[in-house]
Amino acid sequence: MTVTSLQEVADGYRQPRSLGNPILDLNPITTLCVIVALIVTGIALGGWVPSLAVCLLFMVAAVVAGRGRTYLPLILKLWLGVGLILFLLRALLTPGHVLIPLGRIAVTTEGIEQGLAFACVVMAICGGVTLFFEFVPMRHLTLALERLGVSPQASYVLLASFQAITDLGATAKVVLEAQTARGVETEGNVFMRVRAFFPVLAPVFLSAMAATEERAIALDARAFNSSTRHTSLVELRRTRRWEPVLAVALGVIAVGVIVGRALGWF
Amino acid sequence: MAIELHDVGFTYPDGSRAVSGVSLRVEDGERVAIVGQNGAGKTTTVKLMNGLLKPTEGEVIVDGESTAKRTTAQVARTVGYVFQNPDDQLFAADVRAEIEYLPRYLHWDDAKRETRVARAVELTGIAPHLDINPKDLPAAIRKFVAIAAVLVSECRYVILDEPTAGLDQRGFALLGTLLDRLQGEGIAVVTITHDMRFVVDTFSRVVAMAAGNVIADGPLPAVFCDDHVLNRSRIRRLEVAQVARDLRLGDQAVSIDDVVALIP
Amino acid sequence: MVLAELQDVHFTYAYADTPALKGVTLTLEQGMLHGIVGLNSSGKTTLCGLLRGIVPSFHHGELTGRTTILGRELADWNPDELATTIGCVFDNPFTQISGIRDTVFEEIAFGLENLGVAREDIITRVIQVIEQLGIEALAEKNPNELSGGQRQKVAFASIIAMDSDVIVIDEPTSQLDPEASEAVFEIIAGLKKLGKSIVLVEHKIDLVAEYADTVTVLHEGRVALTGTTREVLTDPRLRSFGVTPPQVTELAERLAASGRPLSRVPVTRAEAVELIGERMREEVGGGYRTA
């Protein structure tokens, strides 16, 4: 890398962080509130249509934000892997008006209705959570939380937990590789893999625990426990005025729908 | 019997090219040191020898059979590989279980298991630590435990990745004895190392790598007396050899002995 | 002022049966590069921990004797203040980075953020350190995905960035190739020129000989030898404490053994060239051999 491009990297930190799209650049807390409010509204309205509409809305949002290429395949897998199974279970096992008899079980009208509703509700929740992590880097979330007064220690725990998942996976891979390298079969069928994987699980966790202690000392050496107010190299964009308004408005709608349903208005 | 690499190339799935056009042959009982800068392709090369990686071009043949047709574990029972960091390899609750893991996995009978375990323990000098959890041992001893856990197999070739890193003088001496014993048994040792003193004191054949290619392969002077090779592989002469050169006593000295002989 | 003064220091880790330090008495001056060598488990890392205060505040155990750091007793130091006064890098590069930053640039900035340094000053400082270590190519990489050697450099850079007056480094080059190791030593020498005090644990004795001002040999938790680099590395007892002398010193020993001693025992390459050259000129009376 040339000197000019180090300057470019540095210049990147001189301005607020942008992911290059107005939706992605929403304050992470706004994004969180909007997604939660939409899910709650969808579910509270009841039936499968509102939940499915929320699911579709999330997909549209992903496409508009330029994240369709990663979000849509993931959601498709979730629909096939989770949604479809939930639907089938309900459709086949709910007693009621028999549409298609299949020996001792049968597809019933009630089953289809309940299955659709249940699958759509679960998928709205899954879709929302997935969308949030697609849109918001964890680091941005912690920066937003710190701006609201959350301590750097708390945001460390959050970030480190997510990193730990990646690290554990990487360690497990290396340890398994080392076992293969001494003649333990880790390729082939599921049984072989499980047999090789089981004994390494405990040590992988143990080494992660041991690393935690050393890392605590390393953090201390980096003045992490200093009582001075920490500054931040990375700066989030300023939250626009209308963002909290939007979040609160959607929240009010969600609460309104719940209350409305409870009181039997619709 | 030998490990043969025929014009081998390897490209990682992410598209990065690690080695290309590598041809090497390691005979039974031979000792080979592979040297070169970080990123020169040394680790990829030994992983290809052990079957952890399968070549994307060319062919790797171990004892007459291509590694492409066998699983890594099958190749590994002939070509053992001791990782640089013992913590990546050790997982059992005590040293004995660690060494016995492979024999039990392979369902060897008691007699065979006991003989092989006793040999591995004796070769590596870890007998006093058998009942201790490897995690509680000092790094240098963990290293020997990791070597023992590999030597317990019936491998004919052993790959050691940076065996002297973190070893003190005592460990260094123990490692030297171990290598001699292995050679006596006809087991070949291939090592990756940055420690040129170790290379000069313990090896007679050295392979220098740079940018994914083998740039020199032969007796020590083939690398240590060739400025072109030294520059490309970023390897240094021993300090004493550099002294001889600075004094214009010639550039053919490799070891301390060579230099002592040159000085009037 | 003296960097550190230890008087009859004993330390036993809470979980251990035998002491890690057994009566260490040692004085380290400021503004120098102090090399610490010795066999594995001879107490080197414990000594580093003590200078940095994590022994006994983090690694608990029984500590006796007197430890004075920069004129103040260890017990009187506020741990946070000591942490920023004495920078410290340990040898496992995988645990020496925060693990929560997305780029090397941000990783190096982490310590400065914690000290509350303003953004523009952080940026200037990080650029400076990246250039100093020549790791421009890593600036945008994810620290969690680097190789051991690369992480070692980043961990070192991160401590340098904090500009503490004293730096304790435990085997900074264990994962580096010879060229990169030498580069790290050049940087350490540069830090010394800036007036920093450095305590360095290192197995590569030729580099220690070249760069250190003093050397302390630890053996079974005791100070076996301590003094100027020359005094210690030419001491005939050195080997008995498990330390191999520098190659040029070994060369001089071998020459002496064959009845051709040099006028003085060298510890660095430059010295060896000078001494042997001198002898060659005298002996051959001008019949200087050229290759």
Describe the protein.
The complex is a heterotrimer of chains A (266), B (264) and C (291). Chain A has helices spanning 3-14, 28-45, 48-64, 68-93, 109-135, 138-147, 152-181, 190-221, 242-262; strands at residues 98-102, 105-108. The N and C termini of chain A lie far apart (63 Å). In chain A, 73% of the residues lie in helices and 3% in strands. In chain A, a hairpin with a 2-residue loop joins strand 1 and strand 2 (105-108). Chain B contains 11 helices and 10 strands. The radius of gyration of chain B is 19 Å and the shape is globular. In chain B, the strands form 2 sheets. A 6-stranded mixed sheet of chain B has the order 6-7-8-3-9-10, with helices on both faces. A 4-stranded antiparallel sheet of chain B has the order 2-1-4-5. With 291 residues, chain C is an alpha/beta fold. Chain C contains 11 helices and 10 strands. Chain C has helices at 44-52, 54-57, 79-85, 104-114, 119-133, 148-161, 178-193, 205-211, 229-233, 247-257, 269-284, and strands at 2-13, 21-29, 33-38, 61-69, 72-73, 86-89, 166-170, 197-201, 214-219, 222-228. In chain C, strand 1 and strand 2 form a beta hairpin. In chain C, helix 4 packs across helix 5, helix 4 (104-114) runs parallel beside helix 6 and helix 5 (119-133) packs across helix 6. The chains are: A mainly alpha (266), B alpha/beta (264), C alpha/beta (291). Chains in contact: A-B, A-C, B-C. Chains A and C meet through helix 1, helix 7 and helix 8 of A and helix 3, strand 6, helix 4, helix 5 and helix 6 of C.
Short description:
The complex is a heterotrimer of chains A (266), B (264) and C (291). Chain A is mainly α and 266 residues long. Chain A is built from 9 helices and 2 strands, in the order H-H-H-H-E-E-H-H-H-H-H.
List keywords for this structure.
heterotrimer, A: 266 residues, mainly alpha, 2 domains, two-stranded antiparallel sheet, 9 helices, 2 strands, flat, B: 264 residues, alpha/beta, Rossmann fold, 6-stranded mixed sheet, 4-stranded antiparallel sheet, 11 helices, 23% strand
